Amino acid sequence: MRAVTREIRCAERNATLSSCCGVTGEAMLTDSAVILLYAGLLGAGDFLSLLTMAVLPLLNGLLILPMAGLASACGSRKLVLRANAFALAGYLLTAAAAFADDAAVPLMLGGILLFSICQTGFVAGWFPMLDTFLLPERRTLFLGRMRFFHQISAVAFLGILGAVIGKTPAVGTLQLALLAGVLVFAGRLWFISRIPHFPEPERVRAPLRAGLRAATKNLPLVLFSLYTFLLNLAMFAVVPVMLLYLKNVQDTPGDWLVLISAAAFAGMPAGYLPAHWLDRKLGRKNMFRLLHAVVILDLAALLLVSASGASGAVCVALLLALCNGCIAANSVVAGAMMMELAAMGNKAVAMAFWGVFYYGGSGVARLGASLLIASGVLAANWSIGGQTMSSSHSVLLIGVSIALFAGIILLLPGSFFRSSGPAPGGRN
Question: Residue 207: CB partners within 8 Å, gap ≥ 6?
């Protein structure tokens, strides 16, 4: 077992700081009410507004495998740095799109598209780069702490914005908010450049096709990838769909929307921090089953709660925070399990194979929700037990159904779990 050296601690510290900057800036562009309000003021409809939140995870699912080939060929560190540099350009283009008058919406979407493509390269290189210095027994501990701090940063940033932009922010105000996000995001490049260099043993690789073929023969990895796809498909549309529901159906003011999205983000630190402890105490299998049950109950509660008035908005915010808490805790143990299941000698491609399903599930969830709501396929209004429902509630009902179906995989004998008990000594 390698000792935790000064270089490893330095790498963990700078990786955490880079994540704080990167996720805080990224949240502005892909997961907050800020981009929904900005897209709406530029003239984008509901479909394009929701699409702004779906592009990043969708492209992560589609492009992560070819990007993994680049990571193997040029090195994960180099890919991570270059991808983030080009992502900054896409971020700036998005913020500047309002100056383009009639071309504002296409330029905004083009900026988000460039940012998302580059972020796919970052994701493909990030986990292999972490694997060069992260000790196996520290995976859930490090991932939990890193994500806790980056989510706290994002919540604080969005909370401050919600307090200063006002109830009906103008385009210029939202542009300044996005520019602040650009400056924060630039910190990711700075701190990654300060991570010490560690050897990358997989620079000489077999062809991508051979690595993919090896990954598909890894049955535990395949089952786990399918499970994460279905779970993300059930969960990842919940927050943007409910924000759109509050905006369009409940006429919630803009500053309240930003604060509710900040409250939803606050659920993520609450999920990240105890994930390592729960994983050790409950065991990996029980951890996943507990999270799965809470997800189903949370989605069912969102279906039944009334969102009208201040008390209703607070209830929705708390339930969205719980949903994000489950997403957060799941991502910590899922990331650790993915690193465990990826076979030595095929790490980059095996991790990317899992990433196709993980990010693809979240992207398909948001794109599918956008299409279902914008196309009018779902009933605009329906009722159950005397309570009026909307198309947003129909999306939640679909999510509950998918989560119930995904639970079947957890009940399979053995499934993707190598051990049903807690990892001895906290090892993962």
Answer: none
